[in-house]
Design goal:
The complex is a heterodimer of chains A (287) and B (234). With 287 residues, chain A is α/β, with parallel strands linked by helices. Chain A folds into two domains: 202 residues, 3-Layer(aba) Sandwich (Rossmann fold), CATH 3.40.50.300; 72 residues, no CATH class. In chain A, α6 packs across α7, α7 crosses α8 and α8 runs parallel beside α9. With 234 residues, chain B is α/β, with parallel strands linked by helices. Chain B has two domains: 158 residues, Rossmann fold, CATH 3.40.50; 69 residues. In chain B, 38% of the residues lie in helices and 26% in strands. Chain B has eight helices and nine strands. The longest helix of chain B has 16 residues. The chains are: A alpha/beta (287), B alpha/beta (234).
């Protein structure tokens, strides 16, 4: 059997805030416990990150605040511009028409990036206000996303929105309400509906359950797991919570001070951690 | 089917200043297809760690684990890329311990049906097979929709065993899966495992009870503590 090609390949992904200098690498990273260069004061948010996601696979990135894990997701989603590295995406459906194969998508024009994002990716942010317009109805938020990926018929978009909201356990009768008036858990479920509306090939989840109380967190995680099984979408999960990582992912990367310090099968990373930081992280978990 | 050569495991504990702790000293064994090998030896000789290395929950420190895979041909499980290892876990290699560590809030039926669903079975068939297997393991029908986290130790172990054997793995790793079962349940488990063996499943197992071990094992491999191994082999 030949394994399928990765849907996402990221090589040497790098993001820095500041001018950068030849000595940055000598001052930053896990072994220096810092991501700021002493010489030029540049902050290295993520440094030389390599990553692969295969079809239907769920990959986790775990690390403490400031480790650069969310930066990786934002670079992949083109929310931030990378300072180095390359990203290859296996385009699906419509995106194949305008994304040449073997093209480093970081080099695409802003317009093409937006097109690619709308047809291939879905993202759920920790803060619902980043993913939703709070003063447009829940249904309208989803319809907006559908419009961007080429839908035109109003009735169809409404039906699709209702279906998605039902799937994510948002009462359809609240479809015309503003997300501003929703609870935190429900806002996350609307975000998930929106992220899945274009049937993405790659789903990006950035700390989606952080800040929710445990029973709401459990329902959101169960929902993600169920959708994962139904839709077979490749997913990148960023979380500081080892419980979330254990529950959702099969492979995990551990980040510290902008660098990947360890990666492996999730149960191996949790039971036989190699790097000092991962050992500390695993032994710090409450259960 | 499975050839373990010079396999060893050493843990490096960084918060103890990089202290080295031996999991198990280098060992080698071979299991033919459809045969079963029991690891036998005192506690602390690394039997469970050996199984975890084969399953890649632990990274081997030295040695190779040659495995005849239906998907990929002959591979070294110590070195196999992770996505391939994930595939093998889904399709070929089962692992069951005495502890049920599964998804919270998933019913017993769905938990056991899941491996079949992943392998492409339809929902109805998978659920029917799961129910039949759980019935055979004498899990009451009224528990099928309940969450196994609330089950008794013995019931959890039987759900655990059902989940591990339902998809008839080619290689099954068993780590004391009957530790808290009564005699009648153990007999059923032994019967199920022997049926699997009859259908070609290769097994590496740990059972402290000599009766169970003798009923299931074709070969017994004795494990030794690191000190004993060092003393007799230099």
């Amino acid at each position: 059997m030949i394994m399928s090609r990765p849907i996402l390949i990221a090589n040497h992904l790098t993001k820095r805030y500041g001018p950068g200098c030849p000595r940055c690498r000598d001052h930053t990273g896990a072994q220096h416990n810092s991501n700021q260069c002493q010489a030029c004061k540049t902050v290295i948010a993520c440094d030389n990150v390599n990553l692969r996601v295969f079809p239907r696979e769920v990959v986790g990135i775990v690390g403490e605040s400031g480790s650069g894990k969310s930066t990786v997701i934002k670079l992949l989603h083109f929310d931030l511009d990378a300072d180095g590295g390359e990203v290859f995406l296996e385009a699906n459906g419509k995106a194949k028409e305008f994304i040449p194969a073997e093209k480093n998508v970081l080099e695409l024009s802003t317009f093409r990036k937006r097109q690619l994002r709308n047809s291939v990716m879905g993202i759920v942010y920790q803060h619902p206000h980043l993913g939703l317009r709070m003063n447009i109805s829940a249904g309208g938020n989803i319809a907006e996303r559908l419009l961007m990926s080429g839908w035109r018929h109003v009735g169809d978009m409404r039906d699709r929105s209702a279906l998605l909201l039902t799937r994510t356990e948002v009462p359809v009768e609240r479809m015309d309400d503003l997300p501003r008036n929703f609870s935190g858990g429900m806002q996350q479920r609307v975000q998930i509906s929106k992220a899945l509306s274009n049937e993405p090939a790659l789903l990006l989840l950035d700390e989606v359950t952080t800040g929710l109380d445990v029973s709401v967190q459990a329902r959101v995680l169960d929902l993600i797991r169920r959708l994962q099984q139904e839709l077979d979408v490749a997913t990148l999960v960023v979380s500081h919570d080892l419980g979330v990582i254990r529950m959702l992912t099969t492979r995990t990367l551990v980040m510290k001070n902008g660098q990947v310090v360890e990666s492996g099968l999730t149960d191996q990373v949790l039971e036989d951690p190699q790097h000092p930081y991962t050992q500390l992280l695993v032994s710090s978990a409450l259960h | 089917m499975l050839t373990v050569s010079n396999l060893s495991k050493t843990f490096t504990i960084h918060h103890l200043g990089g202290k080295q702790i031996t999991g198990f000293a280098p060992l080698s064994f071979t299991v033919e297809k459809g045969k079963s090998l029991a690891l036998s030896g005192p506690s602390g000789t690394g039997k469970s760690s050996i199984l975890k290395c084969i399953y890649r929950t632990y990274l081997a420190t030295t040695g190779t684990i040659e495995y005849e895979s239906a998907c990929f041909g002959r591979v070294d499980l110590a070195e196999l890329p992770e996505p391939e290892m994930v595939r093998l876990r889904q399709r070929e290699i089962g692992y069951v311990t005495q502890f049920l560590r599964v998804m919270p809030r998933v019913s017993a039926r769905n938990l056991v049906a899941e491996p079949l669903l992943r392998a492409g079975a339809d929902l109805e068939t998978a659920c029917r097979k799961a129910e039949a297997l759980l019935a055979r393991l004498r899990i009451p029908a009224e528990l099928l929709d309940a969450y196994p986290a609330t089950f008794s130790g013995g019931e959890q172990q039987r759900v655990n065993i059902a989940r591990a054997i339902i998809s008839r793995p080619h290689l099954l790793l068993l780590d004391e899966p009957t530790a808290s079962l009564d005699k009648a349940s153990i007999e059923i488990v032994v019967e199920l495992l022997n049926e699997l063996r009859g259908k070609g499943t290769t097994m590496v197992m740990i059972f402290h009870d000599p009766d169970i071990m003798n009923a299931l094992a074709d070969v017994i491999h004795h494990t030794r503590s690191a000190e004993t191994a060092a003393a007799c082999c230099g």
